[in-house]
Each structure stands twice: as structure tokens, then as C-alpha cells.
Amino acid sequence: MTSTxxxxxxxxxxxxxxxxxGGTPLxxxxxxxxxxxxAECYRMVKQYPKIETYSLxxxxxxxxxxxxxxxxxxxxxxxxxxxxLDPFKEGAEKLEGPNLILYDxxxxxxxxxxxxxxxxxxxxxERSNDQEARKVAEEIAASCPSGRLVVCDRENGKPIEPKxxxxxxxxxxxxxxxxxxxxxxxxxxxxxxxxTKYKVRNRVTLCRCGRSExxxxxxxxxxx
Length: 224
Description:
Helices cover about 10% and strands about 25% of the residues. The protein is of the alpha+beta class. It has two domains: about 5-85 and about 165-224, no CATH class; about 95-155, no CATH class.
């Protein structure tokens, strides 16, 4: 790991943008749906040039998206952070299947719609003694960008997580510009405006419309 990569983190500025350090790769992905409207996978749309430090719009009004152009100051954006420092642990429901345990925190739902595939991850978890059902349940959880869904091996209790390289992806839904959250991947540390550190997770989503009531995390408000 280079010295630049060791410095990789996201710092939330007070009523301002996300400050991204450490040469973190930035790209845009689009959710691909089947004929019934269920999400299947992600498709790469665009990759931005790699730069060491950049700022991402948090108010949703920048004319230079995804980057900040200072509009937050002109419109009086209030970006007060209201989320728990451990957003997943608070309110996660537990569903035990024969071979998998599913933890589901609905407060973190961003409407990506992978969870309904193949009859739903809840049904698949209850049938996780079937090899195919377990495989699909693990795939669905891995595709959940916010980490709302986490599956664990029932035998050892360990989370089954995808290997994600540290990166940031902007999620687009059905081609609507700026429609989805900022997907922070691979355990990138996130610091609040006062320097407090949020719990590091493999998958989290940050609000980029400015309307979430669970800032800095996305709560699906962009869907409105």
C-alpha cells in the first residue's frame, strides 16, 4: 500500500461536500433490471480520471456533479449529521435459516431492488440448506450497496462479504441522472464533520441528493 492509499478516507465537511482523500477510484454504475423490474446486476457506465483528492457534492445542487462547485454555500444547505456511529447495528432484524443467518436493517434501504430476486432473500435464507438458494442469497446480499443486508454462515457466525477494492461508485437507476446514492466500497473510513469516525464497513451508501433524514447515509429519499 502506498503512502497515498494509507491516507485514503472520506471526511464530511460541515454543511459542505464529502472530501475524498487517497486517490480513491471514482466511477458511475447503472442498475440493470430484468423484465419484471427486479435488479440483476450493475453495469459500468463511466470511470473518472484518478486524482489524489476531490470533493463530491452533498447538497444535490452542484452544476458540476458529481463534484462540488460551492452551491451549498449559496443555497444555505444544512447537512447536519443525524446517523448513528454504528448505523447497521441499530435496528437490524435477525432471520435464522438452516445454513444462513440474515441481518436486515430496513432503515438503510436505498431501493436498489436486488432483494426481491428469485422469490426474495428472506425466503432464500429460510431455504439455505438448498445449495442454489444459499448461493443466490449470498449474491443478493453482496449486491446490496448500503449493506442493509448481511448474511452470515450459521455454523461459524462469520459474515459472508464480497471482496471489494476500495472505491466509490455513483449509482444510477434506469438512466435517470444523479438518481442514486454514493456507494462507498471496500472499507473506506468515513469521518464526521467533528472528526468522529463512523464504524468502518465493507459497503455503505452516502446521500447525494441532500434530503436524507439519516445523514450522511442515504435513506432512499432520492426515490421521491
